[in-house]
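User: My collaborator sent over this chain with a note saying "see what the structure looks like." That's all I know about it. Can you take a look?
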Amino acid sequence: MQAIYDFDFAVLDALQKIHNTFLDRFFAVFTYLGAGGAVWILLAVGFMIFKSTRRLGISCSAGLVSELLINEVLIKNMVKRPRPFTLHPYIDTIVLRPSSYSFPSGHSCVSFTCATVIFCYNRKLGIAAYATAALIAFSRNYFYIHFPTDVIVGMLEGILLGILSTLLMKNVFALLDSRIKTEGAA
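Assistant: Without extra context I'll predict from the sequence alone. Here is the result:
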């Protein structure tokens, strides 16, 4: 475990050396976009408004719910990893300091969950979503809010949850479509 902490703090401490006003403001935008999954919730709702993207929005919503239950409720409370700024309290995080546990990164997990769902439905939008997700995830290390390993695991978990949510919802949609066709033929 010490080797992991050594790696994590080496990366975080190196990132402290690149801080400047422009980067602080730039990454603050992304860290706040990811707060509580706000940008992803808004996108899911926006997708649900239009019939052409409704299934994408529903699949994103399923991913959001799975991330909340699995990551925020279960894993974080089982692992109970402290945040890096609690172990190095002298670091100025610049942004608000969350009171929840660190592992895995919720910002990273929810961002990569939704980016993966979007990518599964629409590659062009998905690439933009992955770029946004990566900036949100990186911002958590930049501000000393999460360890790099929290972010890496959050990203991987998010990709897995995104794939599973997409597969589950596409199967549900196929089942509903077949029932509608069956009832329509009767």
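A starting point for your reply to your collaborator: The first helix runs from residue 2 to 16.
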